[in-house]
Specification:
It is elongated and about 105 Å long. 74% of the residues lie in helices and 0% in strands. It has three domains: 78 residues, Four Helix Bundle (Hemerythrin (Met), subunit A); 39 residues; 34 residues. It starts with a helix and ends in an 11-residue tail after the last helix. The protein has 195 residues and is mainly α.
Length: 195
């Protein structure tokens, strides 16, 4: 009974924070509401006894992605009027996608109440161990492809943003090593000073 009330409280917070993400006028507030949504989603994962997924959600999305989003939003000068114009233009597609998701959730809930019965986990069951076994046996090839795609995306992002600036100073170790004393030092013969 207590878990049910906690679930409904977290679900309400998740829905309200998700709505505030898309309706917030300030982009920084929208990102902070998204952080709240991720934390409450992690709480729901914990209620479902999926501890690994909850911790991965917090570490990956809140700890890395949202910090990056917040940094980018705070560093860039965002034209809020252009962002608001896109909201109304994309609203029909958003309503269609949202409707499909609502239909899927209703189907899942209807299946839960009228169809499938959840099976009990055996003693000593670890969802992290089961997830690792499935991920590295059945889906090992897909996991490796995803890793290669992420590596290519990282290299492409670095290549796209890396530009040589004229005012930047950098060292060239190859030219430093090949330098000769005659090229760098000039010996000048001067008469000794007399007191």
């Amino acid at each position: 009974m207590f878990e049910t009330w906690v679930f409904y409280a977290l679900a309400a917070i998740l829905l309200v924070s998700g709505l505030l993400v898309i309706t917030a006028r300030n982009p920084v507030h929208g990102v902070l509401f998204l952080v709240l949504a991720f934390f409450t989603a992690a709480g729901i994962w914990l209620l479902l006894r999926a501890e690994f997924l909850a911790i991965a959600l917090v570490v990956v999305y809140v700890g890395a992605v949202m910090v990056l989003f917040l940094f980018v939003v705070m560093m860039l000068d965002i034209n809020l009027e252009r962002v608001r114009e896109g909201f109304w233009r994309n609203l029909p597609l958003a309503v269609v996608v949202g409707g499909v998701m609502v239909i899927e959730m209703v189907a899942v809930l209807a299946n839960r109440y009228y169809g499938a019965v959840p099976r009990e986990a055996p003693a000593g069951y670890s969802n992290t161990k089961a997830l690792g076994r499935v991920l590295y046996t059945q889906y090992a090839f897909a996991f490796e492809i995803a890793a290669v795609l992420l590596l290519v995306a990282i290299i492409a992002a670095i290549a796209l943003t890396l530009r040589k600036r004229k005012d930047s100073r950098s060292q060239d170790p190859a030219s430093q090593v090949s330098a000769r004393r005659e090229d760098r030092v000039r010996l000048v013969s001067m008469p000794a000073e007399k007191e």
